[in-house]
Amino acid sequence: MAGLAEARIVGAGATATSALVALARLGADRVEVLARRPEAAAPLVGLGERLGVGISVATLLGSDGGAVPLTLSTLPGGAELPADAAARLAGDGGLLYDVVYGHWPTVLADAWQRAGAPAVDGRGMLLQQAVRQIRAFATGEVTEPLPREQDVVAIMRSALMED
After folding, report:
1. Strand partners, 55
2. 65 and 32 in contact (C-beta within 8 Å)?
3. 123-129: average pLDDT
4. Residue 161 CA, distance from chain mean position
5. Pairing verdict, β 119-121 and 95-98
6. The dihedral sign for the CA sequence 69, 109, 89, 71
7. What SS3 class is residue 38?
8. What's the mean pLDDT in 68-92?
9. Within 10 Å of residue 151's Cβ, how many Cβ atoms?
10. Partner of 35 at 20 to 30 A CA spacing, among 48, 60, 124, 138?
11. Lowest-pLDDT range, 50-54, 125-129, 131-135, 154-158?
12. What is the rounded CA–CA span in Å between residue 16 and residue 75?
């Protein structure tokens, strides 16, 4: 998705921060953040300013940002989301990349599938996040691979695909 101009993030926690940085690296200059509590998105607005990304904030029920090519959901697995809000988001949300820390498919992924839109789980990203955390715990350094790390990642990836 190189050259991505705009996107949507659903959620406003720590994972949304990482999502915003990733979107900025992809070239996004406008991101709509949908949060259960809009005031929780204030740090994302500040980060957006530092990254040169315009941030608009709305509630999960109040999005009027129009169609976007990509929606990144960072909601926790058990987060409540009314079915009508999920359906509305699926109707103009483009590809859904759902970084779920819970069951799959999520309420959003179900809505995307019902709308005939593509939805992808974030297990691959979570796997890479786990690898960096293991590096940090083992050596204090996140950029240097561990001995036989490729073998461990292959086993972890295989286990994820069996789910």
Report:
1. 31
2. yes
3. 80
4. 20
5. parallel
6. negative
7. helix
8. 88
9. 9
10. 124
11. 125-129
12. 9
Q: Cβ-count burial of 119 within 10 angstroms (0-12 exposed, 13-18 middle, 19+ buried)?
A: buried
CA–CA distance, 128 with 85 (Å, rounded to integer): 31
pTM: 0.83
SS3 call for 33? strand
Enumerate residues 6+ apart whose C-beta is below 8 A from 9. Answer: 16, 19, 20, 23, 31, 32, 33, 34, 44, 71, 72, 73, 74
Is residue 83 left, alpha or beta, with left meaning phi > 0 and alpha meaning psi from -120 to 50? Answer: alpha
Question: For residue 74, what are the CA distances in angstroms to 8, 9, 52, 107, 159?
Answer: 11, 7, 21, 12, 22
Which residue's structure tokens are 């998705």? Answer: 1
Kindly state the tokens that stand for 141. 């350094």
